[in-house]
Amino acid sequence: MDTSLFIIQLLNGIQLGLLLFLVASGLTLVFGILDFVNLAHGALYMVGAFICASLTYATGSFILAVIIALPLTAAVGFVIERLVARPLYARNHLDQVLATFGLILVLDTAAHLIWGPQGMAVPLPEFLQGQISLSGGLVLPTFRLVIIFTGLAAAGGLFWLVNYTRLGMLIRAGASNRTMVSALGINIQLLFSLVFALGAALAGLAGMLIAPITEASIGMGNSIIITAFVVIIVGGIGSMKGAFLAALMIGLIDTLGRSYLDEIFSLVMSPVAAENSAPAISAMLIYIIMAAVLAFRPQGLFPPKVR
Amino acid sequence: MTMLRGRGWITAIIMILLAVLPPIFVATGNAFWLDLATRLVILAIAAVSLNLILGYGGLVSFGHAALLGIGAYAVGIPAHHWLYGGGPEWLQTTSGWLQFPLAILAAALFALVTGAICLRTRGVYFIMITMAFAQMMYYLIVSIEEYGGDDGLVIDQRSELPFVDFSDPLQQYFFCFVSLVIVLLLVRMIVNSRFGMVLQGAKGNEERMRTLGYNVYAYRLTAYVISGAMCGFAGALLGNFTTFISPEMMDWQRSGELMFMVILGGASTTVGPVLGAVVFIVLEHLLSSLPEPLGVYWHLPFGLLLIIVVLFVRGGLTTLLTRRGDR
Q: If we measure between CA atoms, which residue out of A250, A245, A243 comes closest to residue A285?
């Protein structure tokens, strides 16, 4: 096996995992605390990417664009929480799924109206465009490493926020007992809005990080949201640690499965059979894992301690 | 005519319109509207089948489009082998006597296997696991290059049955319409039977039904399989109608649209899903054919409508029109 190729695939898997974590962390916060299924969370990933693309052209700097786009995406999340999500908290999951499905249509079309039908490429500043040579003749695009470090930094920041700040304490308290928190005089509605906005900013950040590679496009959130649901269900709904570990796991399994499953299969079956079945199985792999988790360990692999 | 009160009227009006309008479309040369009506009736069958488990069983399946796709590929795959060879010999046929039973059986089998696993879960987990299985089906079809993979499959020759010519649009329409009537009667029969009572009882209070000695799991699984079989049949009709099938038919957004039809019309009413499908398809057409540039953005009012219906029209249009809900 080619070692440097394997390391590159490994890093690709970690990159995908971290992006998934950024989307899934907001999803699991909203789901865990508000018991709210938000299919439109992926649309915020798209909104973040588009806002960042526009700002990159307007300011001429990708970094500056990301810094301005983050609070803007959070604001979009804040408004959506007030207008659409809040009336749905008391409803059943079916209503939430349908209404947020409608919200996807609205946000996708709004993006179409504002940014046009074509995707938007996001130019990177020159110092991020190059490649970095590592020992052993390994060459990696700089920006991929930036994604990985940003993802890790965001994850670290989130852990600090949730575990060591007053806001994080309220979030955890809200997750285990909503009524008690509001009885203690906390403005629970505002807390919910903030959690929602935080989730929007995180999903938006993921969209901004991927946009220079894939460009911002309409409907880009609709495939990642389903994978993000896989992540939070495998990890255990409401668990931040679970979302992190499951995101990395799913990212690695998906990336490595697509590259190496045929080789693994050919150990136990004929090369032709392996070549035929591997693409199908590797595409289905994460869903197979999710179904297995739901069937045998419905609470997820790393469920939150207090529920 | 005590039956013709409330919902009875809606049912009568819709079914009469669906029976009378299409021949008029043909006579006046509006072939396009006939196409629309055919698609509508086929999706209505799928929505009615979903309603059996969603409306009456309380089982929110987010993967029903996969069954529709399975049914369509049960027409497309034999037709493909018939034309290009390959595959087992019994599969190389365009006979509806093989394709339709195959569609029903394959969909029922898929529902049996996945349902057996899905029904062990509850609530939002059920929504997500049904979606996961549909995604598996989607990616399975995408990865099979022989059947077109991502690009889909053209059905060169429609199903052949002695009593209907699928290449004649009006005959095809009435075959679908009669199928819808039969499916509606079947669902009504099931719902009003002892079986249907247990199913609805389990939706209201699962614990109580279990205490009464019913094996709720077995009842639900049976309903799930029946629903799947019906939807597979609708899929076979859809394949014959579009003559082009692709994995896109099984996308989770298609499942969402089927759920919307059920909720829009009114879940757990016999006619609700049909009304929902009518409004959905007609509205989709009207909005998307608005003059430029409005027509391009038809998803915007459509999405808003979806949100408004969920937020404000509880019980769906059927309840709104008859002004009496079940609760």
A: A250
| Chain B residues close to A237, C-beta within 8 Å | 124
Band (pLDDT 50/70/90 cuts) for residue A157 is very high
- Label residues B149-162 b or e (16+ Cβ within 10 Å = b): eeebbebebbbbee
* A206 Cα to chain B: minimum distance (Å): 22
User: Cβ A222–B253 below 8 Å, yes or no?
Assistant: yes
B121 within 8 A of B129, measured Cβ to Cβ? yes
Q: For B87-106, b where at least 16 C-beta lie within 10 A, e where not — what string?
A: eeeebbbbebebbbebbbeb
Q: Is the ipTM of this complex over 0.90?
A: no
The DSSP code sequence of A54-83 is HHHHHHS-HHHHHHHHHHHHHHHHHHHIII
Contact (CB<8Å) B297/A112: yes
Cβ atoms of A15 and A147 closer than 8 Å: yes
Residue B17 lies in a domain: no
Between strands B244-245 and B164-165, the pairing is: unpaired
- Burial environment of residue A149 by CB neighbours within 10 A (0 to 12, 13 to 18, 19 or more): exposed
Structure-block tokens of residue B13: 């009006």
Q: How far apart are CA A213 and CA A54, in angstroms?
A: 16
Dump pLDDT digits (tens) for A122-141: 888 888 888 887 776 777 88
- The more confidently predicted of residues B241 and A89 is B241
Domain count, chain B: 1
**Phi-psi group of B59: left, alpha or beta (phi > 0 → left; psi -120 to 50 → alpha; rest → beta):** beta
**Residue B247 within a domain:** yes
Contact B303 A229 (CB under 8 A): no
> Which position has the token pair 């809900």?
B325
Residue B2 contacts A where some CB pair is shorter than 8 Å: no
- Domain, as residue range, for B46: 30-251
Indicate whether B279 belongs to any domain: no
CA nearest to A233 within chain B: B125
Find residues 172-231 of chain A whose CB sits inside 8 Å of chain B.
Answer: 222, 226, 229-230
Whether B277 and B265 have beta carbons less than 8 Å apart is answered as yes
> Is the bond leading into B169 cis (omega within 30 degrees of zero)?
no
Residue of B nearest to A35 (CA): B124
Per-residue confidence (pLDDT) for residue A306, from 0 to 100: 56
Question: And the tokens for B124?
Answer: 């939002």
More confident residue, A292 or A132: A292
Q: Hey, what domains does chain A have and what are their CATH numbers?
A: 12-130+140-296 (1.10.3470)
- Asked if the structure places residue B21 within a domain, the reply is no
Sequence-separated (6 or more) residues with CB below 8 Å from residue B224: B53, B57, B59, B61, B111, B112, B115, B118, B119
| pLDDT band (50, 70, 90) for residue A173 | confident
Residue A284 has pLDDT above 90, yes or no: no
Q: Is A284 on the interface with B (CB under 8 A)?
A: yes
CB burial readout B28-41, b (16+ within 10 A) else e? eeeeebbbbbbbbb
Contact B290, B301 (CB under 8 A): no
Structure-block tokens of residue B175: 């075959």
